[in-house]
Amino acid sequence: MTIGENNSRLLHEQGLTELRLRNCLSPEPFHIRDDKKHIELAVIDNCEPTVQAKIFAQRAGALEIDKPKMDAAGFYDQLASGEMQQAVQLSA
Q: Rounded CA gap, 7 and 79, in Å?
């Protein structure tokens, strides 16, 4: 509310040019929320369709980003022991 009041006062007292200048020098936030993971819908609409699908899937709980899909330590052990050396050399 106070942002709008300040903008209204500034527009009335100093004009549109001053309001635009102040907004360029210190832009207003897209949103004021407690949720740090919230993304404004206008920002999501500007993303590619694959990114939009990923965001909506993550919100629906169908996508788990935090949990790794593989055992990294086991993969490293296989590389170090030589089990996957031949596969790595073929791909390189």
A: 61
Q: What is the pTM of this model?
A: 0.35
The percent of the chain in helix, strand and coil, each rounded to the nearest 5, is: 60, 0, 40
Give 29-72 pLDDT, tens digit per residue: 766 667 777 788 888 999 999 999 988 888 887 666 556 677 88
Say which residues have a Cβ less than 8 Å from residue 22's Cβ, sequence separation at least 6: 10
Q: Measured between alpha carbons, how far is 6 from 2 in angstroms, rounded to an integer?
A: 6
Helix (H) or strand (E) holding 74: helix 72-81
The phi, psi pair for 30, rounded to 5°, reads: -65, -40
